[in-house]
Design a protein that fits this description.
Blueprint: E1 20-21, E2 23-25, E3 28-30, E4 37-41, E5 48-53, H1 57-76, H2 79-95, H3 97-108, H4 112-133, E6 147-148, E7 151-155, H5 161-174, E8 178-182, H6 189-200, E9 208-210, H7 215-223, E10 229-233, H8 236-246, E11 252-256, E12 262-265, H9 271-283, E13 295-299, H10 303-314, H11 335-350, E14 354-356, E15 372-375, H12 382-385, E16 392-398, H13 401-409, E17 413-414, E18 416-420, H14 424-433, E19 438-441, E20 456-457, E21 460-461, H15 466-471, E22 474-475
Parallel strand pairs: 1-5, 7-8, 7-10, 8-9, 10-11, 12-13, 12-18, 13-16, 15-16, 18-19
Antiparallel strand pairs: 2-3, 4-5, 6-22, 11-21, 14-15, 17-20
Helix pairs in contact: 1-7, 2-4, 3-4, 4-5, 9-10
Amino acid sequence: MAFEYAPAPESRAVVDIAPSYGLFIDGEFREASDGKVFKSVSPSTEEVLSEVAQASAEDVDAAVKAARKAFEKWSALPGSERAKYLFRIARIIQERSRELAVLETLDNGKPIKETRDADLPLVAAHFFYYAGWADKLDHAGFGPNPRPLGVAGQVIPWNFPLLMLAWKIAPALAAGNTVVLKPAETTPLSALFFADICRQAGLPKGVVNILTGDGSTGAALVAHEGIDKVAFTGSTGVGKEIARTVAGTDKKVTLELGGKGANIVFDDAPIDQAVEGIVNGIFFNQGQVCCAGSRLLVQESIQDELLDALKRRMSTLRVGDPLDKNTDVGAINSAEQLARIKALADSGEAEGAERWAPDCELPSSGYWFAPTLFTNVSQAHRIAREEIFGPVLSVLTFRTPAEAVAKANNSQYGLSAGIWTEKGSRMLAVAGKLRAGVVWANTFNKFDPTSPFGGFKESGFGREGGRHGLEAYLDV
Ligand code: TAP
């Protein structure tokens, strides 16, 4: 073996990670055509978890052809038959959720509390939800005879590896499409585990193909002429590149990109509840969330009271071993991401904002960043404008609702926002003026498969989730 393989310690023996994995094409695992591989590393320990195949352009071609061939039969199945497979997959995910939660925590670095209680239940819920649609497409209000698009090329990021897979694969299959999916380079393992679940569910060969690889694999997939639909979740930069690639072709495309969500707290908000919402908004998944509440907009009159309570709460957050059920904040996904977070946080200080973090001891190996907040932030600062994608909160203040709306909307992004107030009329008035795809009222980071999700402005276009998410995979 060309690398050091560390066998699982007892604490994570619930999941059997193979020392190497192939690409999942046409129902079989196989090596890359040129034999290339890369390592998947645990961000909390820097230990090599497994070695996975790096798909070449030739492998992309083989996977697209397998998906094309499978499309003929899969799209011709009655919806009720496709539903049976999706229900079966959903049930197997539930049965194997312990293994999947540990695997996701190891490969991504997020706390087991989150993979167990948020990611995995939502993944299963997505498959159950779209399984329910498969035999009702004619009654979904899309007009007569909605048809699947064909082969979907799907590219996903590392922050919610399995959940993003579910958001992509469940509606595509329910609508009668077949898929080729590329997970992120740093988190390939749960997608490969999912490939095994497809086999266990008896899913026909070629309906789901998983290609592990880097950005070049994603680019080859998006550019392949056998793809009818591109679904991408990731950075705005790569999203723009993809939009250029598909421009002028007949490929349909949906893009779910970055965000800089505003969490707006008015002076009548219940402070303790708002503090929990702020913490959940920015420290859930170490802030590596496209819809994170990374800008706190607090009404000036309650600034001191709110910040005192927030700092007290941040001091109680436990940072460390993500496999420990008491951990609140896990590891940053990669050395590159950690470097990006550090550079942006440093820019905050350099531009004159005031940095604060609770005392917390960070583990000596792995990639870690303490929960951090910045006050004295101005709208021009990079930390107020750029997506940090880390556990860093930028605090700004406002006096009037109009000023709150103007500041919240002063962003290239428009994915999410939160409003905290006791007044229903104010809630509705402010929500109606925010240019954000999702607005949460007295809560944050709540997800549900029935609810469409997506962005305004440079946060992308198209919606995933709900009936809208189905439409993105149908010719209506
Ligand atoms: P990206 O670097 O954009 O990567 C996303 C995926 O695209 C990865 O699988 C990546 O492969 C692949 N990729 C890279 N270059 C490509 C290219 N030229 N053509 C096609 N595919 C390519 O983003 P990331 O760092 O993984 O994720 C963080 C970003 O995603 C943040 O900006 C965040 O806001 C956004 N995000 C948005 C949402 C929603 S729903 N709007 C959800 C999650 C994340 P490699 O991993 O191998 O580079």
